Amino acid sequence: MKCLVLVFALAIFLQCEAKQLSRCELVQELRRHGFPEDKMRDWVCLVENESSRRTHRVGKVNKNGSRDYGLFQINDKYWCSNTSTAGKDCNVTCADLLTDDITKAAKCAKKVFKRHGFNAWYGWKNHCQGSLPDISSC
Predict the structure, then answer these.
(1) What share of the chain is helix, strand, coil (3-state, %, to 5)?
(2) Mean pLDDT in runs of 10 for the chain (138 residues)?
(3) CA distance 57 to 61
(4) Contacts 24+ apart (CB under 8 A), 13-17
(5) Is 50 a residue of the active site?
(6) Of 13, 19, 81, 130, whose CA is between 20 and 30 Å from 3?
(7) Looking at 29, 68, 76, 96, which residue is catalytic?
(8) Quick one: CA dihedral 113, 115, 118, 123, positive or negative?
(9) Is residue 9 within 8 Å of residue 94, measured between CB atoms?
């Protein structure tokens, strides 16, 4: 329970430090982290619908009691640890996913995608199939 309180306290603190990326800033960050150009519009749509391009976003409690963290809204049930020790499939803490440096979040999101595709994210499933954002000016 102490670890959960620590994560929420950290999330509140990071909200003061976190930023909301513009669409083009997001595209630049995704390119910098090696996201493929042919799927760039899908990734942008996913991030916009999951976190509104906010690095600090902590989602509401899901039906199974888990939460989603960061720009890509990565779930703590399988992917990140709610302790101060990195763990689970991405070998990160959930707090690692709440920083403006999206390196760990990007690496983890790619791992989720490799296993499950975009269907791992309800934001993409519900909003992005057949309707992707314009990033031509980025």
Answers:
(1) 50, 10, 40
(2) 45 58 98 98 98 98 97 98 97 98 98 98 96 97
(3) 12
(4) 14/56, 14/95, 14/98, 14/99, 15/56, 17/56, 17/100
(5) yes
(6) 19
(7) 68
(8) negative
(9) no
DSSP bridge pairs for 92: 87
Give, to the nearest 10 degrees, the angle between helix 40-51 and helix 23-32.
120
| Residues 116 and 40: beta-carbon distance below 8 Å | no
Among residues 29, 48, 50, 96, the one annotated as catalytic is 50
Instruction: Please give the pLDDT value at position 39.
Output: 98
Q: State which H helix or E strand residue 50 sits in.
A: helix 40-51
Q: Which pLDDT belongs to residue 17? A: 58
Locate 104 and state its tokens.
Answer: 């760990």
Q: At which residue do the structure tokens 């709440």 appear?
A: 98
What type of residue sits at position 11? A
Neighbours of 87 (CB within 10 A): 14
Q: Name residue 94's amino acid.
A: C
